[in-house]
Amino acid sequence: MGFEGIGAAVKRKEDGRFLAGRGNYVDDINRPGQVYAYFKRSDRPHARILRVDTAAAASAPGVVAVYTGADFAADGIGGLPCGWQIHSKDGSPMAEPPHPVLAQGKVRHVGDPVVAVLAETRQQAKDAAELIEIDYEDLPGTASVLDALKPGAAVVHDEAPGNVCYDWQIGDKAAVDAAFAGAARVVKLDLTNNRLVPNAMEPRAAIGECDIAGNYTLYTTSQNPHVIRLLMGAFVLHIPEHQLRVVAPDVGGGFGSKIYHYAEEALVTWAAGKLKRPVKWTAERSESFMSDAHGRDHVSTAEMALDAEGHFLALKVSTLANMGAYLSTFAPAVPTYLYATLLAGVYKTPVIYAEVKAVFTNTVPVDAYRGAGRPEATFLLERLVDAIAHDTGIDRIELRRRNFIPANAFPYQTPVALQYDSGDYETTLAAALKAADHTGFPARRQAAAAQGKLRGIGISTYLEACGIAPSAVAGALGARAGLYEVANVRVNPTGSVTVFTGTHSHGQGHETTFAQVVAEQLGVPVSQVDVVHGDTARIPFGMGTYGSRSIAVGGSALVKAMDKIIAKGKRIAAHLLEASVDDIEFKDGKFSVAGTDKSKTFGEIALTAYVPHNYPIEELEPGLDETAFYDPKNFTFPGGCHVAEVEIDRETGVVRVVNFTAVDDIGRVINPMIVEGQVHGGVAQGIGQALLEQAGYDDGGQIVSGSFMDYTMPRADNVPNIHVGTESTLCTHNPLGVKGVGEVGAIGSPPAVINAIVNALEAYGVRHLDMPATSQKIWSILQAGAPRMAAE
Amino acid sequence: MYDFTYHRPTSVADAVALLGSDADAKALAGGQTFIPVLKQRLNKPSKVVDLAGLGLAGISLSGNALVIGATTRHAAVAASADVRRAIPGLAALAGGIGDNQVRHRGTIGGSLANNDPAACYPAAVLALGATIVTNKRSIAADDYFQGMFTTALEPGEIITSVSFPLPVEKSAYAKFNQPASRFALVGVFVAKGPAGVRVAVTGAGQNGVFRQKAMEAALAASWSPDAVAGIKTSAADLNSDIHGSAEYRAHLITVMAKRAIAAAG
Hints:
The structure holds 2 protein chains of 2 kinds.
Chain A (H helix, E strand, L loop, with lengths): L14 H5 L15 E7 L5 E7 L1 H4 L4 E6 H6 L31 E2 L5 E7 L2 H8 L3 E6 L6 H4 L15 E8 L1 H9 L3 E9 L11 E6 L5 E5 L4 H13 L6 E4 L15 H13 L3 E4 L2 H7 L6 E9 L5 E13 L26 E10 L13 H19 L3 H8 L8 E2 L5 E2 L4 H11 L5 H10 L2 E11 L7 H6 L8 E7 L5 E5 L8 H13 L6 E4 L17 H28 L6 E4 L2 E4 L5 E3 H9 L14 E6 L8 E11 L5 E11 L6 H21 L29 E5 L17 H17 L14 H10 L8
Parallel strand pairs in A: 1-12, 10-11, 14-15, 20-21, 27-28
Antiparallel strand pairs in A: 1-5, 2-4, 2-6, 3-5, 7-15, 8-13, 9-10, 9-12, 13-14, 16-17, 18-26, 19-20, 19-25, 22-23, 23-24, 26-27
Chain B lengths: L4 E3 L4 H9 L5 E3 L5 H6 L7 E4 L8 E4 L2 E5 L4 H6 L1 H6 L1 H8 L4 H4 L4 H7 L6 H7 L3 E4 L3 E3 H4 L14 E7 L4 E8 L6 E10 L2 E7 L7 E2 L1 H9 L3 H5 L16 H19 L1
Parallel strand pairs in B: 1-3, 2-3
Antiparallel strand pairs in B: 4-5, 5-8, 6-7, 6-8, 9-10, 10-11, 11-12
């Protein structure tokens, strides 16, 4: 075995089965006697349901059952819970209208499920659904937060007058106002953050099953099976935990969209109990567009008060956040504690005030999507900094340096609740500029101009918070769950290791990285480590994977569990080697008596633990199997610098990202190859947001980009070769020193791309441009503003 | 999709008989539009008549025509040495349709029978003055395209081949992709050959492919990108959608025409 521990670019163990088409996804699972569910969904944004006639569908060939909202009401099933409660400025709790499994009384967005048809085949269920008659009375609908807040706008929920879910604030308003009053200058920027559809490669799917004794199993495309078990079992269907098993097998991408508890999961489980037959549902792609939680969708105003030298004195932010038609599981937390707490960014702005109004509209619910709040904060801040540079004439790099939190200022308390433990923004900036050959840019711009192209360069010096989260802090902020993680390390008798983790891998490569952590600490080869996740019947109660938390929180639990293994192993070794426990050292997979050549291998100790013939049985239990729960002490704070270089075709307005450099501080790197892949994926999604993606609605709430024919996903030819570098400072409060890498690409890249485009268009007097920067939008700018006489 | 009966006839006569006997029967060529339409339940055919067994695939070069069989795949057209030599712009166009998977299933006859207003092939067929050959007759390109998804084909009529007159002196296609679907937001095919100098535009028009005659006249006088640089297309009859306004499309017609002319040399 070559070096396989922390820092080795070990090839991913899981890829063998994925590349061979031997993954085991939910849709690959078929249960004897299963029936198929098909959902008849609303094709209207907002309507009263006057009549639902399912009689013809119920008697159609193969149909086993037809359910409507009335069946759930009759069973006393309230609806889907929200996992986070926010309080408004005035102390009142957020409006929390019911979210029925199937619509009751009204439909509130295109895609809202109204009727479920269960039949022997998928085809029969679909055929029967066409026989359902629904009479609607259309109501006016709204899609944008601005429209929804207008006086007289259609009300989505009676429980939320004016469509306001909450009106929240953070920071010291009086101090900010005072700073603005005394400022030499104020720079203001209005901006939006475009709504995105996550589009995981694998559509959502669920299979519910119930045995004759009332024991339920749900197979589902989830990032957190225990969370689903808790939410659905305890709060929706009232199934005790010991009678509900939730399995999330191989999952083909989540990006946040598979965190939440969805109506389809509740329906297949509930119906399986009614029918005592397994019930299977797999989303079609068009259903994904209208039923997977969307991401982003903010409208904001940001203002920075400055002194005469461009030092940031105070930041004021006002944001309207679209919640969609219902509150998805973690939706309220995204534009508040995952967003406004990040507004200090990498800058020492002394006072900050932000207010966030969350608004209901007749659109698909919006929740966390790769980055979740932090991309919105980063886009706002990094665009604002470039606007300040534009307005003041201070160089944008110098402006950033002037305001950076210095490397010797950690731990650093921001004015918006967070305390950063470590970071070095100057180092990541310098490394990124060097790797991007920033000094060579003028020559590249000139060469591009000779080809009729406008070339621009942009940077973003971002920071994010992940590794969520200290449970007590999260609880104080409104979380209705703990956010610790758990690992169970089972050493098998011959010395191989099985790790049961509460985190979930849906593309991240945990089967490899977690095994590397074991290899590092126990000296067991990666091939001898099996990582088990995704089945509540096998793994202890953990909170799953989102917010780049797996290695920072789950990895820490793993280390703690292995600490216990080593501690017990030392006691066994001390007995075998007839030495004092205090004299036993564990290193490179061997327990040795310090200063002697007496030692026992890890495998010998494992075997002794399970075959305890010669064993301190009076004082030590047999076995070598330990569990640790780990509650993080703080968030982790990855950060770094992304540099984008773009070329714009003057004739067509097409923007091409020609160079991209990401230098990230993600703490200790477990597997550099996987890190690079994570950054590639995140940057691709960030470029998608910046240039291409827009979940389009018309004013009334009809979806206008409901398929890949109109919703532009980034493709290989939209993404350049990406230079990925790391410049790490270690996290100071977790045992591995790790910070997390899952979201940095999607967080850091969008403002870098837009800053580059604005830079390319500087001769056209462009100060800001909202995403996506489509060719048509750029062409309109090029048409409207003839280039000013350029200085060059 | 809805249930239907599947038929795979081995002669044109049998295919025509199957299609002619039933108004709800549909022909299947490469299926790159038809299969998604079926999957979305937007069409409910009684019979699907697969044309793959008719032996209509193949490319032949005679002295004065390049003849491409109706079920010839885009990939075959793109790779054909004969097509590349005789009409390089046509080979390049075929090589840029959809993606690799689409090019290995989609057929020229299927594309022309469907006449999607954003399809690529109609631009080439119209610009090159090709003839659409069916089981009944030969139809000149100028008569064939009759608006969005509408052609001169009659019920029960099957395209068997497309004949492109030779020699073609110049040919090139420039396409501006609709970013999501990668169909043509605007595609312009320019040609100089037996049909004269022609400029055909796809993707942009409300009635499907059309000839830009002002550009044709300018190019007939002087074959150069500059000749068309100042010629604007009226936005009045052009499509407008979330990916491009009529004005943007009108602008792109001139840009793509210039690029096609430059590529044609």
